Amino acid sequence: MVIAIVQLNYHIGNFEENTKKILDNLNKAKNRGADLVVFPEITVGGYLAKDLFRYKSFLDACDASINEIAIACEGIACIIGAPVRTQLTRAKALYNSALFLADGKVQEVVHKTLLPDYDVFDEYRYFEPNDVFKCIDYRGVKIALTICEDLWNENFPSLYKEDPMAKLFQDAPDVMINIAASPFSETHFNTRQAVMTSHIRKYKLPAFYVNTFGAHTDIIFDGRSLVYNKDAKIVDVLKGFEEDLRLYEVTDKEITSVEVTTSYEELSNIANIHQALVLGIRDFFQKSGFKKAILGLSGGIDSAVVAALACEALGSANVMGVLMPSVYSSEHSLKDALDLVKNTGCEHEIIAIKEATEALDSMLAPAFKGKESDITEENIQARVRSIILMAISNKHGYILLNTSNKSEAAVGYGTLYGDMAGALGVIGDVFKTKVYELARFINRNGVIIPENTITKAPSAELRPDQKDSDSLPEYDILDAILDLYIEQEWSAAEIISKGYEKELVFSVIKLVNGAEFKRFQSPPILRITRKAFGAGRSMPLVAKYPF
Amino acid sequence: MVIAIVQLNYHIGNFEENTKKILDNLNKAKNRGADLVVFPEITVGGYLAKDLFRYKSFLDACDASINEIAIACEGIACIIGAPVRTQLTRAKALYNSALFLADGKVQEVVHKTLLPDYDVFDEYRYFEPNDVFKCIDYRGVKIALTICEDLWNENFPSLYKEDPMAKLFQDAPDVMINIAASPFSETHFNTRQAVMTSHIRKYKLPAFYVNTFGAHTDIIFDGRSLVYNKDAKIVDVLKGFEEDLRLYEVTDKEITSVEVTTSYEELSNIANIHQALVLGIRDFFQKSGFKKAILGLSGGIDSAVVAALACEALGSANVMGVLMPSVYSSEHSLKDALDLVKNTGCEHEIIAIKEATEALDSMLAPAFKGKESDITEENIQARVRSIILMAISNKHGYILLNTSNKSEAAVGYGTLYGDMAGALGVIGDVFKTKVYELARFINRNGVIIPENTITKAPSAELRPDQKDSDSLPEYDILDAILDLYIEQEWSAAEIISKGYEKELVFSVIKLVNGAEFKRFQSPPILRITRKAFGAGRSMPLVAKYPF
After folding, report:
1. In what residue span(s) does the CN hydrolase domain sit (chains A, B) (predicted)?
2. B118 labelled ligand-binding
């Protein structure tokens, strides 16, 4: 039997375009001799369409698409993920299902058993878990078909009672197929391999792990589908962050031939992050129907890195950098920003903010009588810049990119409605220390981020001679503590026991907790770690925290 | 047996204060002769502490609090809700539990079976469901103890397979006790009564429904605990939106005496909404440690209603209204706003925005060359006002209240980082038509909201002679369509079949869908309907919607 597996980039709710893509790939697979073509989890409708799943018209459109795909299944069978109505009186409305289509109709439906409900996942909100286990018999080959999390019973720390693969194994399968929507994070590709090989070693079966690819606002899927033989050796890895369709012949529990063999080259962590962020920007714009991005260029490293990523994603002609010097801006800042404009080839404007900040200072003078200048005046500068960016965005149809990094988002080192504004947080899940790594990576074939931007001490330049290190610990120490508190979810006592100074740990955690209300109003952030701010980390706002 | 039930307002994570309150009430109940005192769901830790539940130090603090309460249980028993570690290798970390404490220690632990995962609830994120059913035997009385959703198997549209009360009934109980954290919404008090009476009619047992009270950012709990006799007649209703402790004697499956009988007076819907919003504001400030609120006063009805609610919640001396006229502001606007200031007694400032908008217009002129004035200039006005409000807030320690109503939040009739700014959305779940009802209610004992504010045509006053009805349908029609699309989750075709004009329905739904990205960055909104914007309605941002 020849099995084709497909990674394609769907657009949630865009049934016309998605169905066309699916049919194109189905026909391509058929023409190249496939008996069966496999698409990822909820390719129909889109993972995750969230509360759109609660609208009848949306589910009707899913059914219509499934019907259209089934009709095309003549001479080829298809496995594809879709939401399927439960039709039960005592259950949630939907299953997260894999449909087996052949001879023009739906032949079998398999439902997902293990529903993730941690981090960015909330599948119990929509889906009823499966409790029926049966392999699919197709042309004499028995397929143990599972959906994403169904194989994660052993490997995920939040453990499950059910073991779907063990149940299916009782039915004597010849091959395992898992259709997935597994998001990118720095460590996830390795974890997926561990998950797959543990099952293959146990059941001695060849296995196909068919992952989706594409970015949906904050969540980025990386593809990199996996194909294993029964000895748990990798036969093939599909492309990272790209569409792909490949064919394999399976005979007697063995993958006997591979149509396309492009040897997979594992990239460095920073190269993968770079690809993920570029895809994240590109898909955000394409899928929301916009072309052009705007951002403020301070001469600092965060805006420089975001500008470079945006130029790569959208083309430099579609990126507008706005330089907005104040009386506190150093001369090198303007020069560094202009060097970046030259290196990237993006558009630019220079608009000094003095006139507006002076007007506001004078308007507010009576209300501020007798008060010293403080952080208020710094925030006014940041907010005037955001008005300028949003005004150009409104007038010319640009989308504002947010340039806050994860370290400053964590400790609240940013101005709400000021530099925290934007439609998409590009590097909001990248710690400052890693922003430097990204800058070096972007410069790998020649200088794009000016050297001075990389080497100078970070500063918000909101008052004379300000440095980030005036208010914050050095970034390598700060990022290490933040990683333990946010990503590893350690308590203060545990972090201190690791050797960090008590006062420092307390003060960092206090800053993080105190900034929950700011982050609540942040734009969506491209997720590249296993714990990004946003949907994956849900904190009460008015709680009393330990500090 | 004398059973005391307690509603108290805890502060999530504030173990010291919460434990003290619990012990005070426990001792009060004991001194008044109670054998058993019952507190609501997760009173220890706080419902819902969200991802704080993932921190070991938080769970350790819960355990320490439970221990302290148990030690106080001499001569009285206690039922109290708390998160309890599962200690299982194949389960989530926690149960949502009810602990039975007596003789100085934890005697029994009952876990929640039905975990809600719809609307604002995501209990599967944290909790493992229960599968063991056993009544608690205390001094010869058998208690069927359940936790909130456990009784909602029949009455909630999203149905459950398990029926916890049916299982417990096999153990021959004498009384039902349900400890709950059931949030306020317009319709929820009636639904709760239906849930309770359906069980009581089935099992012919007296029942105590012990609900929590207090607001936690967006979610407001209303108390109004319910006490029923076995004939399904209400014996008592505890106070709405207030602390309460009451005692009842139970003999032979009958409530034979009630210590305090204050007859419950059911308030009008608008009176309950008013109470909920006042509590929402008060708790937001108290629990985040702030005293003073600031808001912009336009002379319009939204800001007037929010100012009146804030004055009631915080005292008028703690409320600052800022009048920020522009060249487009009508004379009556300033007068209406000043009348409101006079009527409420709040503080005020007048700061005209002309100087800053002119400065920005002149700074942006080169970038806007050849372009007509459009919505950009309107947004600049709204954003200058937000800079002024945030500056005074930063300088003087005020918290900015957001005054957007649900109708405009729905259709995106507001400026991001402008009038959409603020720490708390006070009327973001109140449709415009209901804002008028609220205004009339606030004026029930005399004019607070100026009559002209109520009777004039709504206008944003961002360009000459602007009226809301220039861009939007009349609010009664708009709100009716929004209710069907957002609260009832009807598709366009279903709404049209109800008799609304097709083009109008399409255009409204298109506006709602197009504003998802704006609402994503909204402040938290006080929830008063069964479907508020925020955590209860989760939509993808880059999806293609039907319109």
Report:
1. 1-257
2. yes
Cis preceding-peptide flag for A8 (omega within 30 of 0): no
For residue B142, indicate whether it is catalytic: no
Q: Which residues are bridge partners to B220 per DSSP?
A: B215
**Helix H segments across A81-161?**
none
Cβ distance of B55 and A489 shorter than 8 Å: yes
Q: Which tens digits make up the pLDDT trace of A348-378?
A: 999 999 999 999 999 999 999 999 999 999 9
Largest CA distance in chain A: 87
Active-site hit among B21, B30, B41, B108: B41
Structure confidence at residue A258 (pLDDT): 80
Which letter does DSSP use for residue B20 in this model? H
Give me A393's structure tokens: 């965005």
- Residue pair B121/B202 in contact by the 8 Å Cβ criterion: no
Could you identify the residue written with the tokens 């609830």? B121
pLDDT band at A44 (very low <50, low <70, confident <90, very high): very high
Torsion angle, alpha carbons of B249, B250, B254, B260, to 10: 20
Question: What is the pTM (predicted TM-score) of this model?
Answer: 0.96
pLDDT band for B87, please (50, 70, 90 cuts): confident
d(CA A408, CA A434): 13
Spell out the residues 6+ positions from residue B245 whose beta carbon is closer than 8 angstroms to its own.
Answer: B4, B5, B6, B7, B25, B28, B29
What's the DSSP call for residue B316? G
| Backbone torsion region of residue A397, taken as left when φ is above 0, otherwise alpha when ψ lies between -120 and 50, otherwise beta | left
**DSSP 8-state code for residue A363:** H
Beta strands in B332-484 (DSSP E): 347-350, 399-402, 424-425
Q: What number is the average pLDDT over the span A428-449?
A: 98
Q: Which burial class, exposed, middle or buried, applies to A315 when counting CB atoms under 10 A from its CB (0-12, 13-18, 19+)? A: middle
Go through B282-321 and write b for each residue having 16 or more CB atoms within 10 A of its CB, e for each that does not.
bbbbbbbeeebbbbbbbbbbbbbbbbbbbbbbbebebbbb
* Interatomic CA distance for residues B392 and A317, integer angstroms: 40
SS (H, E, C) B376-394: HHHHHHHHHHHHHHHHHHH
Cβ within 8 Å, pair A46-B374 = no
Chains A and B: how many Cβ contacts under 8 Å? Answer: 273
Residue B286, φ and ψ in degrees, nearest 5: -60, -45
Chain B residue nearest residue A88, CA to CA: B159
> What tens digit of pLDDT does each residue of B401-423 get?
999 999 999 999 999 999 999 99
Cβ <8 Å between A117 and B122: yes
Mean of per-residue pLDDT scores for chain B: 95
Chain A residues touching residue B122 (CB < 8 angstroms): 117, 122, 124-125, 538
Of A117, A216, A356, nearest to B359 by CB-CB distance is A356
Contact B379 A364 (CB under 8 A): no
Reading the block at residue A254, the tokens are 């063995």
Q: Which domains does chain B have, with CATH numbers?
A: 2-262 (3.60.110.10), 271-468 (3.40.50.620)
What's the Rg (C-alpha) of chain A?
26
How many whole angstroms separate alpha carbon B157 and alpha carbon A405? 43
Cβ proximity of A495 and A360 under 8 Å: no
SS3 per-residue string spanning B210-247: EECEEEECCEEEEECCEEECCCCCEEEECCECCCEEEE
> For residue A543, what is the DSSP state?
P
* Amino acid sitting at position A150: D
Tens of pLDDT, residue by residue over A443-489, are 999 999 999 999 999 988 888 888 888 889 999 999 999 999 999 99
Handedness of CA A103, A108, A111, A112 (dihedral sign): negative
| Whether the predicted pLDDT of B501 surpasses 80 | yes
